[in-house]
Automatic annotation (TrEMBL), chains A, B:
A zinc finger (C4-type) spans 57-72. InterPro entries: DNA_Rcmb_RecR, Rcmb_RecR, Rcmb_RecR_Znf, TOPRIM_dom, TOPRIM_RecR. PANTHER family: RECOMBINATION PROTEIN RECR (PTHR30446:SF0). PROSITE patterns: TOPRIM. GO terms for biological process: DNA recombination; DNA repair. Residues 80-175 form the Toprim domain. It comes from Rivibacter subsaxonicus. The gene is recR. May play a role in DNA repair. It seems to be involved in an RecBC-independent recombinational process of DNA repair. It may act with RecF and RecO. This is Recombination protein RecR. Belongs to the RecR family. SUPFAM superfamilies: Recombination protein RecR. It comes from the Bacteria.
Length: 196, 196
């Protein structure tokens, strides 16, 4: 069978997505062309739209379509507390817990020397600049309680403490080895209260 | 967190893909925007290209970019034998076996009443037309040996035999290279019935 090149290209592009192997890519391509061509076009437009419009918030580094995200612009938030999380999903989990009214800094990753992800890749320089704006009194480090999350937390704490900033860490109420995103709300709320 | 709408749209479009849940969709969207915006654009163009250019072969129904696919146009193939398969991947598997020199008809699916996939959806009418072109002498049904594949095979055999066409089915049996000890009982029972 001489496969059509447009189909091959589609399978190759899908294979490039994280967690999608060649079999999944073939199944998805087949499904789209056979049963959901509208879905394929919607996805194409969504990809173009996201690439064109989604950028990083100038203050907290999360994804936004504006210069500064709505959370950072919210006058109700307590500007003295800055919570550092790995991802927007982790930020959303803390918001759902209802236990935090301050602002955030989203690393968009974590230190992972084995994957070549260092201090530059997760915007630590921007965090240090953000944390020394004169308003922030406490930086609450809410990176995951995984090996990489802990290493990231230590790198942050070391540098910020050296600059005289008050750094706390979520309490170990969060189960060790788990991603914040999957932790129940009560545990997150307690961990915020018990931060050390 | 007020998530940006372009990001939400991307996650929604990804969620629509088979086998992709909301967590996977978020992870993929995050990865593309954070680490592989070029990959997102390549995928968008591949989707557009495939939707615009990939259609069904007028003779065998498989995906192709031409009116008739290269296999159907190949003058070396034996036009007296027509092998019916569920998918292009199944066709490719038979090609790799090197055991078949005839032509194919690709159903692009199989009967699945529970999923609402009936005779119309898998192009059986086109198969019947194709099989009665005056050149085809034998239709070899190579749908899967699953419940749905067997039901599809029976529907095909019934209709074609009623029109006087010679219909055969791939033999059920013990896979080459396997120890009998490890073969499931149903397969052994079928291999006994179909012994040659
Ligand atoms: Zn922000
Ligand atoms: Zn063809």
């Amino acid at each position: 069978m001489a496969a059509p090149s447009a189909l091959d290209q589609l399978v190759d592009s899908l294979k490039r997505l994280p967690g999608i192997g060649v079999k999944s890519a073939q199944r998805i391509a087949m499904h789209l062309l056979q049963h959901d061509r509208v879905g394929a076009q919607v996805l194409a437009r969504s990809l173009e739209g996201a690439v064109a419009n989604v950028r990083h918030c100038a203050r907290c580094h999360t994804f936004t379509e504006a210069e500064v995200c709505s959370t950072c612009l919210d006058p109700q938030r307590d500007r003295r507390q800055l919570c550092v999380v790995e991802t927007p999903a982790d930020q959303a989990a803390i918001e759902r817990s209802g236990g935090f009214q301050g602002l955030y800094f989203v690393l968009m990753g974590r230190l992972s020397p084995l994957d070549g992800i260092g201090v530059r890749d997760i915007g630590l320089a921007q965090l240090f600049e953000r944390a020394t704006d004169g308003e922030v009194e406490e930086v609450i480090v809410a990176t995951g309680f995984t090996a990489e999350g802990e290493a990231t937390a230590q790198a942050i704490a070391q540098t910020l403490k050296a600059r005289g900033i008050n750094v706390t860490r979520l309490a170990r109420g969060v189960p060790v080895g788990s991603e914040l995103e999957y932790v129940d709300l009560g545990t997150i709320a307690h961990a915020l209260v018990d931060r050390r």
